[in-house]
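Weekly structure sync, notes
Attendees: PL (lead), two postdocs, one rotation student
Agenda item 3: pending single-chain targets
PL asked that the sequence for the first pending target be pasted directly into the notes so everyone works from the same version. It is reproduced below exactly as submitted, 518 residues in total.
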Amino acid sequence: MRTSTIIHLVAFVNAPFLMCGSSLSGAEYYVSNSGNDDNPGTTPAQAWRSLAKVNAFRFAPGDVIRFEKGGVWRGQLIPCSGSKEGHVTYTSYGTGPKPQLLGAVEKNKPSDWEPVGKNIWQTGPFPVDVGSIIFNNGAVCGFKVWEDSDLDKQDKFCFGRNTKMLKVYSVRNPAEMYEDIECALKRHIINESGRRYVVYDGLHLAYGAAHGIGGGGTHHIIVRNCDLCFIGGGRQFSKRNKNGWYHVRYGNGVEFWGGAHDNLVEGCRIWDIYDAGVTNQGASKNQQYNIIYRNNIIWNCEYSFEYWNRPETSVTHDIYFENNLCFNAGRGWSDGQPYKRGRHLSFARNRAQTYNFYVRKNVFHYARSAAVIVQGDHWNGRDKLVIDNNLYYQPPDRRLVWWGDQRNGKSFLAREFHAYQKFTGKDRNSRLVTLDTLIVRPGRLQLRINETEPVQVTVRYSDGATADVTPVASYSLSDAAVASIQPMGTLKGLQPGKAVLTVSLEELTATTSVKVTE
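Predicted structure, written out during the meeting:
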């Protein structure tokens, strides 16, 4: 995948502390799909092979672990901590796409599946809950149900808590219908509980049913230039209410749980997350402080950013969510799942003493339910929550903000933006905009057979601000035999000829000509 350039509306103003890896020089280790765990791992020619080897090795502060670009590893990464003298860094080497860490079991062979009823296919057993099924790299995602009797439509699936078997409704063997089937396991792809002084740089995390990066009690963690996608959906708990069983699922892109401080997430692409793209939260006495989320692009998540903390003895301060591009909250693979709504900012009941909390200079582009929800009647430190200098795009008759108690709060439609500003005192210098123009670059594309060429798509809003929307735009070609287009906007030449590439975003469209030669 190509890392798209983020076009910011304003220059980032640094927080009053700088997050960076220390300069202590340590050893370098290499991991390759063609390596061998009996190797020393100290050069690309003598690389290790497995995550198990990486997890078992005790790295020292300053050490760097490099996964080969283009490689794929399945399982869970458990990092080592660094120290004040040096971070332990997990990154890449070589050329090609970012190395992938996948939290799923692949079931691509027809022999992986057995028929157990009319249009019901079974596979397994699995060690833990399967929270989601991703078909053909996200072209289709399964719909989770809780009883076998509810398996009545294509791609519905049910995981047996006692049998550990997975059942799917499919009119044919699933492996004959789809080229790739990923069964996401309820484990964090990176489990960093209790870790400190760790850097993740340039990794691709996908297909896990818990969190992409999760764990409590972390500090001095840097997540930089990483991709996280199709994460979450694992069963968190089930309980009865007056209407029967109530099932709760979970899964965030990056979560800092409990006592977390001096952590940074920057320059990442985060999409199709069951719950929050990024979040810090806690449910027992803790302190959270000096946490920055900046310069990320987040889309198709239930929440772009979620925060809450409790109890009253907890403290949260100096949290920065700034210069992020957030698109299409509530769209994506979890759209249509029970209890999914779609909000960019979700500030649930917060009992912790909270101050110096900043949400500034972000783009919030369309939310299915509301761009902002603040349960203000139950939010300790509401007057110290700074939401300002943001840009909002939301159709005028759709809800923009929900403010107050979940049942008795006050709702503001997008066309009531000024009333929201006056009522809450928030977003005083923010803007509500409409769409103006979609721009595709380059204006003409010429490439050879099997050559790839990225396009860049920019939206201009009504106030003149611009944002890079390459990952979230839709693409179509007038002649699919001439070239193919990937979801992230990379064109590939297939055979000589000409075609027109049409790009769309909401009601806007733009075109560019494509010519493929020998």
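Discussion points:
- DSSP finds three helices and 50 strands in the chain.
- The radius of gyration is 23 Å.
Action: rotation student to compare against the earlier draft before next sync.
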